[in-house]
Amino acid sequence: MKISEADLFEKIEAFLADYPICQYGFLKSEDILFSDKVRYICEKECPRYGKSWSCPPAVGEVADCKKHCISYQYALVFTTLSEVKDIDDMEETLATRPEHEEVVHAICQELEQLSEAYFALSSESCAICSQCAYPESCRHPEHMIPCIESQGILVTDAAEKCGIEYFYDRHTVTWYGIIFFHHDQKSC
User: Fold this and answer.
1) For 92, which DSSP code?
2) pLDDT value at position 1?
3) CA 148, 152, 156, 162: dihedral to nearest 10 degrees?
4) What is the superkingdom listed in this entry's lineage (predicted)?
5) Confidence band (pLDDT; 50, 70, 90) for 2?
6) Which of 179, 175, 150 is nearest to 99 (CA)?
7) DSSP summary character for residue 6
C-alpha cells in the first residue's frame, strides 16, 4: 500500500529520532550539485581510486551517477558525530567510522520496511570486505554503499542547502550520509 508523501516524511523523521543523528534535512534530488571536479580530488588524493567497486572509475561517469541519483525524487542528508582525541590521527578518526556506517545501514533497513526505494551513499568508500574484490565481481553488491564524492556530489553544498552546520574542532569527526529515495517503486 502506498503512503502519502507527507506520511512518508513523517515516518522517516520518526525513525530518525531513534538514531544518533546530529543534523539532517531533505532536498529534492534535482537540487543536489554534481561536479566532475569532485572526481578530480578522488583520482589525485584518494588511495581507493581504481581499487574499489564503490569508487571511481568503477561507479561510472559523473553524468551517469547524477542520472541515477536524480531518478529518486528526494535526498535525506544527515550527519553523525564522533569524538576523538586528535582529528589529525587518521587511525583514531577512521576507527569511528563503523558506528556511522551502522547508522546508514539501519536507515536503509527502515526504508526497506516502508517498501521505499532508495540509493545510499556514505562518507567513505565501502568497507564491508577487508579487501575489495575489484576488478573481480563484487561479493556483496546489495549491501555496498558508495562514497558520496564518488558520485561527483559536492557534499558541502548539499549540507548547506539543508541548513546543516559543519562542526570542526580538534576533537570532532563529522560523518555524512545521503540517501536518495522516493515512494513510487521498489529498488536497491
Assistant:
1) H
2) 54
3) -80
4) Bacteria
5) low
6) 175
7) H
**Full-model pTM:** 0.91
Whole-number pLDDT of residue 156: 93
Does 185 have pLDDT greater than 70?
no
Q: Please, what's the largest Cα pairwise distance for the chain?
A: 49
The cell numbers describing 40, all together, are: 578530480
Helix, strand or coil for residue 93?
helix
More confident residue, 127 or 144: 144
Q: For the segment 154-183, what is each residue's pLDDT rounded down to a tens digit? A: 999 999 999 998 777 899 999 999 999 985
Burial 52-82 (b: 16+ CB within 10 A, else e): bbbbbebbeebeebbeebbebebbbbbbbbb
Question: Nearest-CA neighbor of 100 among 84, 117, 89?
Answer: 84
What distance in Å separates the CA atoms of residue 147 and residue 94, rounded to the nearest whole number? 14
Q: How far, CA to CA in Å, does 183 sit from each of 9, 25, 75, 76, 128?
A: 10, 17, 12, 13, 27
Task: Give per-residue pLDDT as tens, 54-79.
Answer: 999 999 999 999 999 999 999 999 99
